[in-house]
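anyone seen this seq b4? input:
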Amino acid sequence: MEEHILKEGKYRYIEVGKGKPMIILHGLMGGLSNFHGVTDYFPAKGYQVLVPELPIYDMPTIKTNVKNFAKFLERFIEYKGLKDVILLGNSLGGHIGLLHTKLYPEMVRALVITGSSGLYESAMGDGYPKRGDYEFIKKKAQDVFYDPAVATKEIVDEVYATVNDRMKLVKTLAIAKSAIRHNMSKDLPHMQTPTCIIWGKNDSVTPPNVAEEFHDLLPDSDLFWIDKCGHAPMMEHPDEFNTILDSWLMKREF
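predicted toks r here
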């Protein structure tokens, strides 16, 4: 999807379709192409789908945290002149979507989270990342999915390159620590935004009990499961993910 990336000022993003704005937020190790199932499906349903590239490695290390990414998202929404957006976030992207919704509830019509951090995070695991150890990185990438084959060589190579770039590694760890520090358990009960929670039953990064806790704490949420699925349902089961989300949006009249 590289040919569809628009570059305007400080923003790099994909934009497909016209209609109700849906903004997709990728995870810490996730690229824009992770959501091609969503970007292929929803424009035909009357949505303007945007996937901004989060400035994970562009901010000074001291500012590399979840709150500043939420502020970046707010500026992107204003730059595009959008209102009543639907935010869809995976992993760190879900956390950014949650915090943005807390800080700017008037901007967000609905929130969709999948494998989101914000309550619990084990993505880094013990001793991860290990620089230089390709097989270790490969195993870590495969563990994100129920089906290890989803972790293509391209995905593994990208993660490997990131953890072997010293500055990227420093910022990756800074973000991971920020996500752990920024626990939202006390915020969620006060957030009235309708939220769709789609979770892999076999997610080992943010296990199923995390989804149940999000569902319990968020006042207006619906929880859906995808079987034989890990941390990135929109990648591993794109058709089922789209069907669940489309049905929820129609039921809620979004």
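The first strand starts at residue 5 and ends at 8. Confidence is low (pLDDT under 50) at residues 123-128. kinda curious what u guys think
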